[in-house]
Amino acid sequence: MEIPRPRSRSSSTSSSTCSGSPLALDPSVLELLNSHLTEKAEEEARFKALEAEHVAARLAGLDVEDDDAGREDKPMISLDDYKKTFGEDWQLSQFWYSNEFADHLSTKLHGMCTRETKIAFMCSPTAFVSFQHMKQLPGAHVFEVDSRFAALSPRQFVPYDLDSPDDFPKKFQGFFDIVVVDPPFLNEVTNVKVSSTIRQIIKPKGKLLLITSTSIEDIFKKVYSEPPLGPLRKTALDVQHGQLANDFASWGNWDGAEEFGRD
Ligand SMILES: C[S@@+](CC[C@H](N)C(=O)[O-])C[C@H]1O[C@@H](n2cnc3c(N)ncnc32)[C@H](O)[C@@H]1O
């Protein structure tokens, strides 16, 4: 994986020393370990509660899958609750946006949407949560390999593994007005796979917003050069993560995308 380790982790355990007894842990390490285990247990309990809410809603007939028409969804959880419930899994290259950035992005995206807009958040669950928490659109969907996100809104979750780029429900062929994507790995092969899916699910004049590291900008000419995905223009968005120091930016395929994100 090319994304560097979060800053907080690399420094938190480096001062551990042996206390003399082979079984005794340094108290500061023990404290860290206990707080980590408590955090994980709380995260798990919140997740189970969220899942249980959806099961209860389904049993009560309030949550009908595959029905986009005219139905109000349960309110989306806040970003703070989301982050307490869905810890980052670094094996899946999960690094969540800062709340400030996610909300700024959502405000700008809502500015491009109507109630009827169909918008896909591919590999960008935090953006989906912020967007739906701000104002719910029935045509918003999150494409993700991590099935935990089904608990956010089962009807709007689309199981998606970029290693099977053609494997998605056929109803999404040419379906989306806007696609937001933050590919998990910073290389050409990942972008080729993801772009192959986007080419199939986006409308001919649809808008693509790609959020990624500036370090792979040179592959865009190969992967995103042709309509409907390109050419790409760098936007004014200042991309911020909670625990990642990478130089990220975003690019859009529409005329005037350079102004997207400007205050
Ligand atoms: C770099 S993160 C982007 C998340 C974004 N920063 C956010 O806060 O919403 C990439 C996302 O891709 C997802 N992912 C990892 N492997 C994947 C795969 N094989 N197919 C589809 N998505 C994948 C991860 O679960 C993660 O949410």
Automatic annotation (TrEMBL):
Matching InterPro entries: DNA_methylase_N6_adenine_CS (IPR002052), Efm5/EEF1AKMT1 (IPR019369), Mlase_EEF1AKMT1/ZCCHC4 (IPR041370), SAM-dependent_MTases_sf (IPR029063)
Top-rank taxon: Eukaryota
Molecular function (Gene Ontology), one example: protein-lysine N-methyltransferase activity
Subcellular location: Cytoplasm
Keyword Methyltransferase: yes
Transmembrane region(s): none
GO annotation terms (biological process): methylation
Region (Disordered) location: 1-24
Pfam families documented for this protein: N6-adenineMlase
GO cellular component, one term: cytoplasm
Low complexity biased stretches: 9-22
Alphabetized UniProt keyword annotations: Cytoplasm, Methyltransferase, Transferase
PANTHER family referenced in this protein's UniProt entry, alphabetically: EEF1A LYSINE METHYLTRANSFERASE 1 (PTHR13200:SF0)
Protein's name in the database: Protein-lysine N-methyltransferase
